[in-house]
Design goal:
0% strand; Pectinesterase inhibitor 6; extended; mainly alpha; Invertase/methylesterase_inhib
Amino acid sequence: MARVKYYSIIVPMLLAWLITILPSRASPNPNGDGYVRDACSVTRYPDLCIRSLSSFSSTAKHSPSKWARAGVSVAIGEAKRVARSLYVLRKLSVRDFGSQVEDVATWVSAALTDEDTCLDGFDEQRGKRIKPLINRVSNVTYMTSNALALINKLATAGPECLKN
């Protein structure tokens, strides 16, 4: 049960961070280049968007719904690959403790920053549909902040805590 809760905290936090830094494994599709460029023109990282979504051009074409699904699909796929970060936390070693914890803290801190930026985008939005979304993002932000505090506590405890 604890593993599921931890996984549900880490994956959303790292998802935003991953989207900004990981290269895509998708191969470019030169036939639908105009479609993907048009779809990605609204993104913060259009080059990454084009690389990661170009393989969907022939099916998504001008459909915002299909592009959104493709974007989420690719993001989830990348997030699943982050299971290696959980592996790092599960396999902390006395020898590499400092760098391991520092890496995880950096990832979580970056995710927290992205969540705050996401919330900033809703500053002028109101309505029944926006409030639940803001509440969910806020909740993830709070959980991320808690996770970061626990990671910092782990760092303060040092590698000696691994001997328990």
